Amino acid sequence: MDVDDNFPAAKRIITEIQSIVNRDTNLKEFDLVIQPESQNKSPVIYIDHCLGLESWCVRHVYEYVYQRLVSARKRLKRQVSNETITLLTSALLLNPEVSTFWNMRRELVIDGCLKPNEELQFSAVVLTFKPKCAEIFTYRRWIFFNILKDFSCDIVLNELTVGLTAAAGYPSNYNAWNHCFWFIQKSLEHENFSLISHQWEKTKIWCCEHVSDHSCMQYRQRLLKCLVADKRCLQHLECCTSKSLLRFLNSDERHKLMRPSEDYFGEAICVVLDELYFNEDLIMMYQSHESLWNHRRFLCYLLVNIYKIDCIKEALMNNERRISTKLLKSNELYVKKHILWLQTALCIPIKLL
Amino acid sequence: MVMETLTRDVPSSMQHHNNSSVSNMKHSYVQLSKTCLDEDAQINKKLPKELLLRIFSYLDVVSLCRCAQVSRAWNVLALDGSNWQKIDLFEFQTDVEGPVIENISRRCGGFLRQISLRGCQSVGDGSLKTLAQCCNYIEYINLNGCKRITDSTSQSLSQYCKKLLSLDIGSCSMVTDLSLKAISDGCPNLTSVNISWCDGITENGVEALAHGCPKLKSFISKGCTSMTTRAICCLAQHCVKLEVVNLHGCNNIEDEAVIKLANNCNSLKYLCLANCSLLTDSCLVSLAEQCYQLNTLEVAGCSQFTDIGFLALSKTCHLLEKMDLEECVFITDSTLFHLAMGCPRLENLSLSHCELITDEGIRHLSTSTCASEHLAVLELDNCPLITDASLEHLINCHNLQRIMLYDCQLITRNGIKRLRTHSPNINVHAYFAPVTPPPSTGNSRQHYCRCCAIL
Question: The whole model's pTM is what?
Answer without folding.
Answer: 0.78
